[in-house]
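Lab meeting, item 3. Inverse folding demo.
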């Protein structure tokens, strides 16, 4: 009787951000489909462990507090890191994949007890120095979406060609959620001021949606975002917002329930797209070409006549006074009716 092959123990290093984590899910689905015996652990920033646990192919999410340790840079942080590393090295891995391609992620990959470390080569890694820490390096073109880059990296490492169809692999976690065909979710917050859309535009869009018979719920995650939500509700009293901050899983349930989602360049917009809800994301200072929403049910919307400075990838708009919180021209030029028409088209498909 032929014995089954030994499990392939894999450690993935992809610590952040939220959108980057969702972009990695299809590669995980591919890998598990081609190597069912793979046991996959994933090193991820502690705030995102909840998300990694959603994917059924992940054996264990290993939380790390690297952001905090690098910010504090004290004796306590160094002691915590050494304890974390000691715990990590209790497990031996056949291969570690650094899918982030940064110096910091390469150092974490190097900390593991592993037979080999693999990742992008110097022409493909986001920070070329990272590739010097790997035993094996792979060239993957930067001129494609991040989802496909990661899928191709995994395919080259493990000897298969990814299928054309994407599988984020997380919908089964939310099969209990009932779709509400008249519910819309608006994601108004993001980490950069230059990515924000004006409250006036959100108010007008909300008014249009309500006039068309939809219920609108506005997501918020900070006191500043809650204030924006309240200003929209003041203009459109039929709109609502959650009373308290919600967990990522609770937000995901609302995104699954919704008939459509409109958001900014933020992780929760990527989450909505990964959950296959019709989703529109608004882009200005950043480019959707390589890291935008992906899939036929999504759309990345920009101003109709792009400005010469787009995308600037800056947190401060050069056309506005320093520390201004006004909406930059690249975002202000995206009009509510255009957003609405794009969403309704996606919801009909």
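The presenter then showed the designed sequence:
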């Amino acid at each position: 009787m032929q014995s089954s092959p030994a499990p392939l123990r894999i450690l993935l290093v992809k610590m952040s951000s939220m959108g980057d984590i969702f972009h990695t899910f299809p590669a995980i689905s591919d890998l598990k489909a081609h190597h069912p015996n793979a046991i996959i652990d994933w090193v991820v920033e502690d705030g995102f462990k909840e998300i990694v646990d959603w994917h059924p192919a992940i054996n264990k999410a290993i939380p790390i507090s690297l952001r905090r340790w690098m910010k504090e840079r004290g004796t306590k942080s160094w002691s915590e890191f050494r304890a974390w590393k000691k715990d990590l090295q209790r497990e031996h891995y056949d291969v570690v994949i650094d899918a982030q391609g940064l110096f910091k992620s390469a150092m974490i990959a190097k900390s593991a007890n592993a037979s080999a470390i693999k990742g992008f080569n110097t022409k493909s890694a986001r920070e070329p120095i990272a590739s010097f820490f790997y035993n094996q390096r792979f060239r993957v073109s930067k001129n494609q979406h991040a989802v496909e880059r990661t899928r191709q990296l995994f395919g080259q490492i493990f000897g298969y060609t990814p299928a054309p169809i994407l599988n984020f692999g997380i919908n089964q976690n939310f099969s209990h959620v009932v779709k509400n065909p008249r519910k819309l979710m608006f994601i108004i917050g993001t980490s950069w001021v230059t990515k924000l859309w004006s409250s006036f535009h959100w108010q007008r869009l909300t008014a249009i949606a309500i006039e068309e018979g939809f219920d609108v719920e506005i997501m918020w995650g900070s006191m500043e975002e809650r204030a924006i939500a309240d200003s929209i509700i003041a203009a459109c009293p039929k709109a609502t917002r959650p009373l308290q901050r919600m967990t990522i899983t609770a937000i995901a349930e609302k995104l699954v329930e919704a008939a459509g989602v409109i958001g900014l360049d933020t992780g929760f917009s990527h989450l909505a797209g990964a959950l296959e809800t019709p989703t529109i994301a608004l882009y200005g200072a950043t480019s959707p070409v390589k890291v935008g929403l992906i899939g036929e049910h999504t759309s990345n919307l920009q101003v109709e006549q792009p400005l010469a400075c787009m995308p600037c990838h800056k947190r401060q708009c050069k056309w506005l006074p320093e520390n201004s919180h006004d909406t930059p021209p690249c975002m202000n030029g995206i009009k509510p009716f255009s957003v609405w028409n794009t969403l309704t088209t996606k919801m009909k498909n």
